[in-house]
Amino acid sequence: MEDDIENILWTSEDISNRVSELAAQLTHDISAVKSTELPVFVGVATGCFVFLADLVRRVSLPVSIDLVRVSSYGTGTLSNGSPSISSDLKLDVTDKHVVLVEDIVDTGNTLCWLIKHLKSKGASSVSVCTFLDKPSRRKVNIELIGKGKFYRGFECPDHFVVGYGMDFAELYRNLPYVGVLKPRCYQGVKEELPKN
Ligand code: PRP
Ligand code: MN
Ligand code: MG
């Protein structure tokens, strides 16, 4: 698996340090809001799973945790811009503050759609906490709800990255660092550059 990595962008130590900072910021911001309602952290499967687990264990407040799964891209690797939900929330988020947790924001389509979905379910505010952000690829503006804020771990250059939950063809998610995939690993894929 390591042979397929061109270079490492963030080591597990870099990641650990940054996740601790994000968790401290979230803990501070959530505590500052005088609300009796505890926040719900909603991870977007599958890519969120490592980040979500690391993040919530460092948030020193009682929080609820749920997962959603969004099918954005069918069987291909390109965005068609019209996601649909394939596994919905288990928890009721009516009047709750939701923190959406993602591994990476690319075009923004998945998040925009999910934010609208959470609004329709009655969330009072929606923040986003994404491990990586690739603003150079953004196609839509991400409009948060209520007093929601946007948190990101790192700005990601426009390379195909894997590890720390992110995959190519469902592999590499278990790498403990984030690296750039060697082009030979995705050459032969018919569509243009695959997305995470
Ligand atoms: C990736 C990533 C985000 C989304 C970002 O998930 O985890 O959820 O794409 O792309 P966008 O900003 O262009 O919408 P993917 O659909 O590959 O599923 P996965 O998490 O199971 O890998
Ligand atoms: Mn995802
Ligand atoms: Mg993926």
Q: Residue ranges: pLDDT <50 for 5 or more in a row?
A: none
- Radius of gyration equals 16 Å
Q: How much helicity do the residues have?
A: 10-25%
- Percentage beta strand: 25-35%
Distance between the termini: 16 Å
Strand order of the largest sheet: 4-3-2-5-6-7
Alpha-beta classification:
alpha/beta
**Helix count from the secondary structure assignment:** 3
Kindly summarize this structure in a few lines.
This protein is α/β, with parallel strands linked by helices and 196 residues long.
Fold and architecture overview:
Residues 18-168 form the Phosphoribosyltransferase domain. One of its GO terms (biological process) is seed germination. Its EC number is 2.4.2.8. With 196 residues, the protein is of the alpha/beta class. The protein has one domain (13-158): 3-Layer(aba) Sandwich (Rossmann fold), CATH 3.40.50.2020. Helices cover 21% and strands 28% of the residues. The protein is built from three helices and nine strands; from the N terminus they run βαβαβββαββββ. The protein has helices at residues 12-32, 49-56, 109-120, and strands at 5-10, 40-45, 64-71, 84-87, 97-105, 125-133, 150-155, 161-162, 178-181. A six-stranded mixed beta sheet has the order 4-3-2-5-6-7, with helices on both faces. Strands 1-9-8 form a three-stranded antiparallel beta sheet. The longest helix is centred in the N-terminal third of the chain and has 21 residues, at 12-32. The protein is globular. 34% of the residues are buried. The protein binds 1-O-pyrophosphono-5-O-phosphono-alpha-D-ribofuranose (PRP), manganese (II) ion (MN) and magnesium ion. The site of manganese (II) ion (MN) has 2 residues, from loops. 1-O-pyrophosphono-5-O-phosphono-alpha-D-ribofuranose (PRP) binds at residues 44, 46-47, 72-73, 79, 102-110, 167, 195-196.
